[in-house]
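Need a sequence for this fold. Nothing fancy.
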């Protein structure tokens, strides 16, 4: 009699462990599905941000090109860039100053931005 009870207890324990494992597997599967959805959302956001960044860069390029063209038209200077001009290498600070000049910043404003008070 005890042997049957022990077998029955062991059988019930195995059934309970089996149900627990099934529940844990379902929980893990659910978490994996949630993470997959989150990854898809993050990937879509990343792609969207890349498109927006690309659009903004193109717009900034067009704005700068327009400003340069307008400056050339206003000043009458429309010199093409020579091969020597293409080979010039500017430092980061020189590029920054040229950028601020293209934005019509005064020397005082450039110093404030560059913190050269």
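Here you go.
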């Amino acid at each position: 009699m005890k042997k049957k009870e022990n077998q029955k207890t062991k059988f019930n324990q195995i059934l309970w462990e089996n149900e627990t494992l099934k529940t844990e597997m379902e929980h893990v599967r659910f978490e994996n599905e949630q993470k997959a959805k989150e990854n898809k959302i993050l990937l879509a956001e990343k792609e969207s941000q890349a498109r927006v960044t690309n659009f903004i860069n193109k717009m900034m390029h067009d704005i700068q090109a327009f400003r340069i063209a307008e400056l050339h038209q206003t000043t009458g200077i429309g010199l093409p860039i020579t091969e020597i001009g293409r080979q010039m290498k500017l430092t980061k600070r020189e590029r920054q100053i040229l950028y601020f000049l293209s934005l019509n910043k005064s020397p005082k404003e450039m110093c404030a931005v560059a913190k050269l008070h």
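For context: The first helix runs from residue 2 to 75.
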